[in-house]
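Thread: quick sanity check before group meeting

JM: Hey all, I'm pulling together slides for Thursday and realized we never actually wrote out the predicted structure for the chain we discussed last week. Dropping the sequence here so it's in one place. If anyone has concerns about the input, flag it before I start.
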Amino acid sequence: MNSSLLALFLDKYPDVWLRFMEHMNMTTMAVLLSIAIGVPLGILITRNKTASNIVIGIANLMQSIPCIALLAFSVPFVGIGEKPAIIMVIIYALLPIIKNTYTGIISIDPKLKEAAEGIGLSSWQKLIKVEMPLAMPFIMAGIRISTVAAVGTMTIAAFAGAGGLGWFINMGLIGLNINMVLLGAIPASILALLIDYMLAKAENLLVPEGLKPVGQIKNDKLEKHTFQKVVVAGLCALLMIMPLGVKGYAYIKDATQKTIVVGTSNFTEVFILGYMYENLIEHYTDFKVERRFNLNGADFCFSALTNGDIDTFVEYSGTALMNFCKLPMNSNSEVVYNQVSETLLNKHNVVTSKPLGFNNTYVLSVRPDFAKEHNLEKMSDLLAISNDVILGCTAEFLHREDCLPGLEAKFGTKFKDVRALDATIRYQAVTNGEVDVIDAFSTDALLKKMNLQGLPDDMGFFPPFYAVSFTRGELLEQHPELKDVFSKLDGQISDKEMRNMNYAVDVEGRDAHEVAHEFLVQKGLLPK
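JM (edit): ok, ran it. Output follows.
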C-alpha cells in the first residue's frame, strides 16, 4: 500500500466503513434470498428432466444479460436504492446455486438411493438423510461461487443510488484517481475473501466426515466438533441478522424524522451541488436529507423524481429540453428555460429553479499539439477537417439530436471515425492520441488536468446548459418554506467557480462535501 493510498484511507476511514457495511448488508441479503430460491428450485428440477432444461436455460439466459441492464430494467418497477441492486444480484447468483444443487443430487449413485428406499425411508427422509448430505459439497461450491461473484457485482449498486463500495470506484473513475478506485476495490476483495472463508468453514462442518477425502478427515472429539458448529452457526446467523437489524433501525429512525431525498446523476459536479442543497436544507429547516447520489444519468434521475423516489436533483436546461420535455433544440437560453419550466410544471408538476449561474455547455476539445498542427482555434475550424479527424465521445453525445446527429444534419459533418467511450476514458484516449477530439463540458476539471484545448462554439450550435434544480411540486406545496431554501443558490455560481470546485475534487482529491460547504461559507449562505 503506497503512502498516498494509506493517507486517503485514513482520511476517509469513517466513509469506507459505512460503505463497507452497506455493501456487506446488500450482498448478504441478496445471497440469502438466492439460496432460499435456488436450492429448493435445484431440488425440484431433479424430479423432471424437461423442467431442469427449462429452468437452467432461463437461469443461463438471465446471467447473459449485462448487470447494468438488469439494474436499469428493475428501477421502473421497484424504484431506486437497494431493491433493484439486490434483485440484480439475486438473478446473477441463482445459476451456480441451481445448477450445482441439481448436479449434486443427480450425480448420486442410484444404488444408494435404492438402498435408502429399501430400508423404508420416505422421499422426504431420503432427501434429508441421504441426498442432501451427499450433494452438500456441490451445493456449497455453488453458494461460494455465487457469493464471491455477488460481492463484485454489487459494486454496480452505486449507479442506483444504493451506495456500497462501488461509490469509491465510480468516484475514482470520474477523477482518474487510481487510489480512489482501490479504496473501493480492496475492501470489496477483503469482503469476498472473508465471506468465502466463513462459507468454507461452514462447508467443512456440513459435509459428513465420511464423505470427505481421506486427507481432510479429522477424528475430532464430539465436544470440539460441536463447539465449531456453534461458532460457525453464530457467525452465519450474525451475517443474516445484521441486514435486518440495520434496515429495522433505519425504518424506525426515518419514521420519526422528516426527510427530503436529494438525488444526483453520476459525476463530480452534481455531487458538489447535491451536497450544497443538503447543507442548506439541514441548516435552514428541520428536515434530514437522505442522499441518493450517483444515479445512472439524467433520465434515471428524472424517472426517480416523477416516481417519487427522490424529491429534488440538479440537471441542465439543455438536457431537460431534449430529454424530459421532448422538445427540439434551441440556442436561446431564455427560450429554453421558459419552455422547460412551463412544460415540466404543467405535465409533471415539477418546479424548476432559477439558473444557478454557470453554463456547463459542450465544448469539443483537442490536444494543444493537434490544434497547432491543424491551426484550430474554434469549432468551425475543426468541422472543416472532420473527414480526417477521429472523434471519441460518450454514448449520449453519439445519439442526442443536439450533439453529433445535429452536427451531421445541420453542417454535413462526417468524422473519419467515431468511437463511443466512457465519460472518463475519453480523456485518456485523446491524451494518448487514440482519438483526436472529444466531447467535453466547459466546467470539466479534467480539461485543465489533461491540458486540453477547448474549441469555442462560434457557430452557435450547442444549446445552453445552465444548471437548475428540479423539485417535486407536491413537496413545495406541502412545505412552502422550502422555496426560500432552494432559491438561495440561484445565480450564485460562475463558470470559473464551478470549474475550480470540480478541480479541487477531481484533481486535488478533496472531499466533495467539504468543497461544497466551504463555497457556501464563502458566499455567506452558511455561517463560518
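AS: nice. Strands lie at 259-263, 288-292, 312-316, 350-352, 362-366, 390-393, 417-420, 437-441, 453-455, 467-472. The chain has a mean pLDDT of 85.
JM: adding both to the slides.
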